[in-house]
Amino acid sequence: MNHIHISARNISKTFNRRQIFSDISFSTSAPGSIAITGKNGAGKSTLAKIIAGVLSSTSGELLIELDGKKLDDEARKTHIGFVSPYLNLYDEFSAMENLFLLMRIRSSHDCMDHEIEPLLKRFSLWERRDDAIRAYSTGMKQRLKYVFALAHSPSVLILDEPTANLDNDGIKVVEDVVTEQKRSSILIVATNDSAEAAWCEESIRL
Ligand SMILES: Nc1ncnc2c1ncn2[C@@H]1O[C@H](COP(=O)(O)OP(=O)(O)OP(=O)(O)O)[C@@H](O)[C@H]1O
Ligand SMILES: [Mg+2]
User: Fold this and answer.
1) What is the DSSP string of 70-124?
2) In this predicted model, what pLDDT tens digit does every residue of 6-40 receive, in sequence order?
3) Cα–Cα distance, 136 to 125 (Å, whole number)
4) CA of residue 43 to ligand 1 center, whole Å
């Protein structure tokens, strides 16, 4: 079992001279969970993107270590799963084609066969796997983001608005995923919902 550790030191973010947040510090090791809370516009999604490595901080340091070794940007992709309203799917391609593309970007196509089918089934998308994403409902798109995020069994799972657009069955699947993730790995949840924030042992308020 790999030992994963995240530490953020004095993270600040400025957009066009507007300070969004400053000097955010936290750290956690697996098993661990952190909620990111705060008002609309406080910077929850921004911080989630910085942790996921899709946006840089203006200052401060974010370190992800696996067995004591710092992960570079490339290695991060293979250890992080990210579900976010800002994640774009390729509308003209099917779910399977989107999965193949993302796996290639992540350079982890080896996990395709045995991981993807059970995940698509778990999220009730298996029957619709060859449909173009433009024909998906918003809840189906959200479910597909979970399939991407979980396909490589990430050590760090980052969820921004985890249950957006999901029905009760979808929410139940996400709650089970969250329970499993917290048990052995790291979970980070950015949310406005206090019940979702309560999934996590610790919280950061922006
Ligand atoms: N690309 C960008 N360029 C300029 N400003 C941005 C950009 N992205 C976000 N912001 C600003 O950063 C601030 C934080 O936005 P963010 O989306 O992180 O907030 P949030 O806490 O996730 O809000 P919500 O609860 O509405 O999801 C807002 O003032 C927003 O306008
Ligand atoms: Mg947000």
Assistant:
1) E--HHHHHTTEEEE-TT----TTSBHHHHHHHHHHHTT-GGGHHHHHHHHHHHTT
2) 999 999 999 999 999 999 999 999 999 999 999 99
3) 10
4) 5
Q: What is the per-residue pLDDT across 43-82, written as a single tens digit (0 to 9) for each?
A: 999 999 999 999 999 999 999 999 999 998 888 888 999 9
**Paired sense of beta strands 202-205 and 186-190, if any:** unpaired
User: Which ligand 1 atom sits closest to the C-alpha of 46?
Assistant: 18
CATH topology of domain 4-205: Rossmann fold (3.40.50)
Spatial separation of the C-alpha atoms in residues 80 and 158, rounded to whole Å: 7
| 99 alpha carbon – ligand 2 mean position (Å) | 24
Q: What is the dihedral of CA 166, 43, 62, 149, to 10 degrees?
A: 10
Binding site membership of 45 for ligand 1 (Cβ less than 6 Å): yes
Whether ligand 1 lies within 6 angstroms of the CB of 43 is answered as: yes
Q: Where are the domains of the chain?
A: 4-205
Q: How far is the CA of 45 from the centre of ligand 2 (A)?
A: 4
